[in-house]
Specification:
The structure is a homodimer. By secondary structure, chain A is an alpha/beta fold. At the A-B interface, helix 4, helix 10 and helix 13 of A face helix 4, helix 10 and helix 13 of B.
Chain lengths: ~450, ~450
Amino acid sequence: MADTQVVVVGAGLAGLVAARTLVREGTDVVVLEARDRVGGRTLNDEIAGVTVEVGGQWVGPGQDRMYELIADLGLETFPTYDEGHGFLEARGAVRAMEGSNPPFGPFALADLFQAQRRLEKLVDRVPLDAPWTASPELDAETFASWVRRRCRTEDARAFYEIVSEAVFATRPANMALLHVLTYVASGQGLESLLGTGGGAQQDRVVGGTQLVSLRMAEELGDVVQLSRPVWGIAQDEAGVRVETEAGAVSADRVIVALPPTLAGRLGYEPAMPAVRDQLTQRLPHGYVIKVMVAYDRPWWRDKGMAGQATSADGPIGVVFDNSVPGSDVGILVGFFEGEHGAVWGRRTPVARRQAFVDCLVRWFGPEAAKPVDYVERDWAAEEWTRGCYGAHFPPGVWTQYGPALREPVGRIHWAGSETAVHWMGYMDGALESGERAAHEVLEAG
Amino acid sequence: MADTQVVVVGAGLAGLVAARTLVREGTDVVVLEARDRVGGRTLNDEIAGVTVEVGGQWVGPGQDRMYELIADLGLETFPTYDEGHGFLEARGAVRAMEGSNPPFGPFALADLFQAQRRLEKLVDRVPLDAPWTASPELDAETFASWVRRRCRTEDARAFYEIVSEAVFATRPANMALLHVLTYVASGQGLESLLGTGGGAQQDRVVGGTQLVSLRMAEELGDVVQLSRPVWGIAQDEAGVRVETEAGAVSADRVIVALPPTLAGRLGYEPAMPAVRDQLTQRLPHGYVIKVMVAYDRPWWRDKGMAGQATSADGPIGVVFDNSVPGSDVGILVGFFEGEHGAVWGRRTPVARRQAFVDCLVRWFGPEAAKPVDYVERDWAAEEWTRGCYGAHFPPGVWTQYGPALREPVGRIHWAGSETAVHWMGYMDGALESGERAAHEVLEAG
């Protein structure tokens, strides 16, 4: 006699949506979450008395599932502050940036536009629901070697270095060209991924994105069991048994709503098929430390600055104005990304704060020197996440092991933003994946 | 009060040598092995009544630790059969091969020699004990894109495709150029890695290489505890606690003698530092299915054939005469490598046997069609190995995360062939790593 019909492992967005979908169809569900909180890679925190997110925080056009769910849960959005000019730093030079074109000279701009056009053409060649059927050549080189071959100017190369770290939290060297193409196609184009107004950073959730998970968990009530890390999953013809330190939960099926690199660490009985295990050996996470500083007010706005900057020099790669309506506090958010994250993750919070502030002074001026508060979160150090924003595919992985990404293994189904077809790696992708896994389970009866 | 002074996790060559080194210094040791046998990626089996290895089997010049240990344990070696000509297959054509030069036309040979010279120069630039200090450019592209750029002929490109699958069990797309350079440097050059006589496939162990582990385990007696998979390791200022289903073992220090991708799956308390975890997310194993067929006698020898073949067409990549002195039985060993392994691993043993035999008929003639026996081993399907021959480094990993490979984490030390400076990935490297880890522990007191 099973304890429940379906166990969901992980109470991030994917797991909670899967549970919610199943419960609404009258299915008995237990959600097992390792942490003492829900939300996975979304997490609210506080700076200078203001609620902010130290995890995923933006939504934008095309992310229909997120906007619908936000409304459905009685939440609201507000636009990311996006007025005034930003800055772009590369090779020691800080240049003001108006609009979406980088402040490059005509030769570098032409170089970049040609590369962009070429990239867009390649993006169009990716079959989004089956990237493994793309040409193996696209999967045989790194994004770095493609950029090196396609761009002649240092400026254009720096642009893609910034893009890589800002979007993937890893260097162009670490990813297959095919992965970049797939991810860009999944997110409706590079402009969409990079943009604030009109792009994936357009809107924010009033009260913080973790509220989406908190509200769903509230609805689900005691379906969600916190502080219950899952160690292993056994399955046979009769059902599944999900093992935790506080005892096992048996069910008909299980949805594992963890990123692949964490799903691969569970013990399975019988052991995972070889190709599934080979896949989960190959999907590392990027490295992000999200940092924020607060000031009495958003003084940069008075100077016509958007509070935005991107830098190829680092150690902070991207900065946005992260102030919240209804509060006078001025907040700037930045990211130590990829290799910068790995290097600065070994240092102290005090050193990271200073490095962040040093960048801000360089870009926005001496007023940035004395913030009143600081918060940070190193997602690679988090035992139950192990890196952000999400997984990237090194060369050879999509074409050789891609089909194992969503394919159920017996009574085990896979969710998590990494398994999404659209908005892979984003909150919206997490919702798609949770719905898809729930429907797999419902269809299996 | 600790149960022992040092726990060693894993009774492969690395773990057993570490234990043996420590015991000889008077240290109390417990070895915990998940399987019901010792030897890790070495394993004896039987074909047509003859003992053969379905795991690692060859030793060669420069592998001094292996030769010494073999002698020390009262074992002997014999030379791999290496007389007569081999074959090379590429793009549908099977060509006989005399000596070590591929049977290419002059243009392709010149192309290949130029590439080889260039590769050797790059190999010389790798600081073997710290590959992470090499130029990041060497780590920013795949071996595939380097081959594509450096070789103009399809023959030369096919040669490196074969090399990649034969040596690394993965495609050139999956590895960083820097990884290939490091591995080649670690194994004393590409010729050494590819060769039988004079190379890493020169000699074999009488009775099978698993005897090396079996003899060490015999010496160690009840120090070695089989069928005790380790789930987690907790450490504090007082010592370590190594958790297994049958209870914990406490000690001063622990040596984890597992490949990195398996070491990364254990639970750690406190959690692993971010950079160590990021590293173990990034070191996937190759895919090998080792297959053997037996005939009444080694009939190919009568025809002047060495029983050797390499193929870019597959699905078998490399074949050797694997007969054993003192027996009349003729044995051929082959490998489904890399992508071929992943594809053929999903099929049945009968289908794999037939695919192997079909290759042999193509290369050696119709006498190959009717073997009297067949054995196989899919190492990627093995829960406690998860792929062979060993780990490879995708682009960006050596330069960004390499230092975490051997660096102890508190009371936890790392062994396993992947952590070796010399003969990384080989049995000899496993011995080096076990000795090194044992000395770390001894020096720590």
